[in-house]
Automatic annotation (TrEMBL):
Superkingdom of this protein's organism: Bacteria
Organism field: Streptomyces cellulosae
Residues covered by the Co-chaperone DjlA N-terminal domain: 98-222
Coiled coil (UniProt feature): none
Name used for this protein in its record: TerB family tellurite resistance protein
InterPro entries membership: DjlA_N, TerB-like
Length: 231
């Protein structure tokens, strides 16, 4: 750096002899959950070219850098893995769909679709975000699923049902805290218990739910026992 003097003789800011400068180019955009802002924001995906500078003037290329994600609000840069985190809107939809799928799976496993089970399931699904869900709608969906897939009520969780549960829960599980994953399992357990003790098919379905949520077998057993105990 070279020192300098201002017009009044005082020391001026030093001039940087050598440095680097990055020229960014936008290559995409969208919406993401910004960890800096703590909410959904627009972003630009950037790639950059670095150059050596002499007295602030670019003189030689130094190579490419990035890509990075720049928040349109706070202007901070993040690695592209930040895009793996769902937006708040997307996360809410994933959670709502997961609870709905678990409710249908437990009802189908229960076999009888009793009124108490349907009432508990409908209340659970409404609390998750499907505000207009009714007992009759859930009952009709379970009937339609059985007719479409040839599924037999009250039988252990088959391949088709296991795939449906994993499709709904696998993408969600990494973004849930342990308490959140346990909450979804317990909601399914309460639906199963609404008309009496667990049936073997209900236990099997709930075990599949636990596996999809990456809850270990011992914890699944503990949680199902806890749900059965009156609070």
């Amino acid at each position: 750096m070279l020192p300098g003097r201002g017009r009044n003789g005082s020391a001026a800011r030093p001039v940087r002899l050598l440095g680097t400068r990055t020229a960014w180019t936008a290559v995409g955009d969208g919406e993401f959950f910004c960890p800096g802002c703590g909410g959904d924001r627009n972003y630009q995906r950037l790639t950059g070219r670095r150059r050596f500078t002499l007295l602030g003037v670019p003189v030689a290329p130094r190579g490419d850098t990035g890509p990075v994600v720049e928040c349109a609000a706070c202007r901070r840069h993040f690695g592209t893995d930040v895009l793996d985190h769902p937006t708040t809107t997307r996360f809410s939809a994933m959670l709502r769909d997961a609870v709905h799928t678990v409710a249908l799976a437990v009802l189908a496993a229960g076999g009888s679709c009793s009124r108490t089970s349907l009432e508990t399931a409908a209340a659970t699904v409404r609390a998750a975000g499907f505000d207009d869900c009714t007992e009759d709608q859930l009952g009709a969906l379970v009937e339609a699923l059985a007719a479409d897939t040839g599924r037999v009520y009250g039988r252990p969780c088959g391949t088709g049902l296991a795939i449906e549960l994993h499709e709904a829960l696998d993408p969600l599980a990494p973004h849930l805290a342990p308490a959140g994953r346990e909450s979804i399992l317990l909601q399914g357990a309460r639906i199963a218990l609404a008309d009496g003790p667990y049936t073997p098919a209900e236990r099997d379905a709930l075990a599949t739910v636990g596996a999809a949520l990456t809850i270990c077998t011992d914890d699944v057993t503990r949680l199902l026992a806890a749900a059965r105990t009156p609070s």
